[in-house]
Amino acid sequence: MIKINQLYKSYGDVEVLKGISEHIKSGEVVSVIGPSGSGKSTFLRCMNLLEMPTSGDIIIEGESISAKGASVDDLRQKVGMVFQNFNLFPHKTVKQNITLAPIKLGLMTAKEADDKALELLAMVGLTDKRDAYPSSLSGGQKQRVAIARALAMQPDIMLFDEPTSALDPEMVGDVLDVMKSLAKRGMTMVIVTHEMGFAREVSDRVIFIDGGNIVESGTPEDLFSAPKHSRTRAFLSKVLR
Amino acid sequence: MDTIYTSLFAPIGDDGLIGGLLILEGLKSTLTVTFFAMILGAVLGVATTFMKMSDHWFWRWPANLYVGVIRGTPVVIQLVILYFIVLSALDVGVIGAAIIAFGLNSGAYISEIIRAGIQAVDKGQTEAARSLGLSQRQTMQEVILPQAIKNILPALGNEFIVLLKETAVIGFIGGVDLMRAGEIIRSRTFEAEVPLFTCALIYLVLTYGFTFMLSKLELRLKQSD
């Protein structure tokens, strides 16, 4: 579904991604872990071109997105993104946040978008908040709305950039539950996360990135219980206590 | 009391000029220039902002030059150069020239106000909108501008107050605005206090009134937060 070949990304002289190659299959749930500054968020953001790769190729459903002339806007409709800081539109209600893109892009009528929004809000358990403004929601509620907003575009892939890092601990569970149910429905997901328990429980595969490279990749059991690489072991010994 | 009477209500000089009426005339000029200069400035400001945000240097370069020159020189010089040199061949009149000069001046500052208002919107908003597949234009219209307007409007009101006060140099090109009216009365009556304090008071009432209206507006804008 997503093929990444020799992905490089530099900011000036600083090389953040040093030739990452990866293949994410349809329906696969992949967690990306690694120390901060390792390039894992940049890796994720390259997949919908919020960061432009310096070189390398990203192929989504057979189409190269980094090729010249590729329609970035069309690609992004297929790839949903959930941010650490939610980034809900504060001047729009919860429902308007969800319906904005499908209506503006002509994918749904206002009525269809409304129905879809209510269906998604039911899924994330926030039907009663449909007419509220984001400022009146808790962090966990905001993130669940953000997930619903991304899903309204009916994407083939969902990218999550540390979706629970900005949440109070008691809010984390609700968001992870929504993500688990998404995974069960067969959504292809790439999740940059610090929630090791979640990564272990939900992922089909875990990727450990350090220093701009994929150090190790494998099933959660293999990677967490029997990490092959010393850097993986060092990282895990710090985060798993 | 006598000086108030002679300064404002009695004929001063051989032409039978009455101070109070002259001040009203001056006030009319001040308000006319401020009002139309603000409109011209707003149009220029929006256009300049779009040029400055363009990807192409062909648009950015003249916009940057315009803002740089206007911000880097006193408005009095801009006014005098425009009236006596640039517009000297055209019959736009003193008030017309003042509107153009202050409009040009204000446009540069307003473009900076708009730019700052847009840049103050969190970058994550653009990222979220673009990640949903919205185009750059749709993102601007639907997500950025509605939020930027809340930053822009209060600063725009402030610019209006600054502009109103800055028009007090219209006398340099021979126009009779509020300030110049006071000066004429002072020079004819040899009484400084009454005409100058009267003018100052009128400026103060205008700016205070406007500030009050502005604070009401800001309160309403904050309601959706």
Automatic annotation (TrEMBL), chain A:
<protein>
    <submittedName>
        <fullName>Amino acid ABC transporter, ATP-binding protein</fullName>
    </submittedName>
</protein>
<dbReference type="InterPro" id="IPR017871">
    <property type="entry name" value="ABC_transporter-like_CS"/>
</dbReference>
<dbReference type="InterPro" id="IPR003593">
    <property type="entry name" value="AAA+_ATPase"/>
</dbReference>
<dbReference type="InterPro" id="IPR003439">
    <property type="entry name" value="ABC_transporter-like_ATP-bd"/>
</dbReference>
<dbReference type="GO" id="GO:0005886">
    <property type="term" value="C:plasma membrane"/>
</dbReference>
<dbReference type="InterPro" id="IPR027417">
    <property type="entry name" value="P-loop_NTPase"/>
</dbReference>
<dbReference type="Pfam" id="PF00005">
    <property type="entry name" value="ABC_tran"/>
</dbReference>
<dbReference type="GO" id="GO:0005524">
    <property type="term" value="F:ATP binding"/>
</dbReference>
<dbReference type="GO" id="GO:0015424">
    <property type="term" value="F:ABC-type amino acid transporter activity"/>
</dbReference>
<keyword id="KW-0813">Transport</keyword>
<feature type="domain" description="ABC transporter">
    <location>
        <begin position="2"/>
        <end position="236"/>
    </location>
</feature>
<dbReference type="InterPro" id="IPR030679">
    <property type="entry name" value="ABC_ATPase_HisP-typ"/>
</dbReference>
<comment type="similarity">
    <text>Belongs to the ABC transporter superfamily.</text>
</comment>
<keyword id="KW-0547">Nucleotide-binding</keyword>
<dbReference type="InterPro" id="IPR050086">
    <property type="entry name" value="MetN_ABC_transporter-like"/>
</dbReference>
<keyword id="KW-0472">Membrane</keyword>
<dbReference type="GO" id="GO:0016887">
    <property type="term" value="F:ATP hydrolysis activity"/>
</dbReference>
<keyword id="KW-0029">Amino-acid transport</keyword>
<keyword id="KW-1003">Cell membrane</keyword>
<keyword id="KW-0067">ATP-binding</keyword>
TrEMBL record, chain B:
<feature type="transmembrane region" description="Helical">
    <location>
        <begin position="92"/>
        <end position="110"/>
    </location>
</feature>
<keyword id="KW-0813">Transport</keyword>
<keyword id="KW-0472">Membrane</keyword>
<protein>
    <recommendedName>
        <fullName>Putative glutamine transport system permease protein GlnP</fullName>
    </recommendedName>
</protein>
<feature type="transmembrane region" description="Helical">
    <location>
        <begin position="194"/>
        <end position="215"/>
    </location>
</feature>
<dbReference type="InterPro" id="IPR000515">
    <property type="entry name" value="MetI-like"/>
</dbReference>
<dbReference type="InterPro" id="IPR010065">
    <property type="entry name" value="AA_ABC_transptr_permease_3TM"/>
</dbReference>
<dbReference type="GO" id="GO:0043190">
    <property type="term" value="C:ATP-binding cassette (ABC) transporter complex"/>
</dbReference>
<feature type="transmembrane region" description="Helical">
    <location>
        <begin position="31"/>
        <end position="51"/>
    </location>
</feature>
<comment type="function">
    <text>Part of the binding-protein-dependent transport system for glutamine; probably responsible for the translocation of the substrate across the membrane.</text>
</comment>
<feature type="domain" description="ABC transmembrane type-1">
    <location>
        <begin position="27"/>
        <end position="214"/>
    </location>
</feature>
<dbReference type="InterPro" id="IPR035906">
    <property type="entry name" value="MetI-like_sf"/>
</dbReference>
<keyword id="KW-1133">Transmembrane helix</keyword>
<dbReference type="GO" id="GO:0022857">
    <property type="term" value="F:transmembrane transporter activity"/>
</dbReference>
<keyword id="KW-0029">Amino-acid transport</keyword>
<dbReference type="GO" id="GO:0006865">
    <property type="term" value="P:amino acid transport"/>
</dbReference>
<comment type="similarity">
    <text>Belongs to the binding-protein-dependent transport system permease family. HisMQ subfamily.</text>
</comment>
<keyword id="KW-0812">Transmembrane</keyword>
<dbReference type="InterPro" id="IPR043429">
    <property type="entry name" value="ArtM/GltK/GlnP/TcyL/YhdX-like"/>
</dbReference>
<keyword id="KW-1003">Cell membrane</keyword>
<dbReference type="Pfam" id="PF00528">
    <property type="entry name" value="BPD_transp_1"/>
</dbReference>
<feature type="transmembrane region" description="Helical">
    <location>
        <begin position="63"/>
        <end position="86"/>
    </location>
</feature>
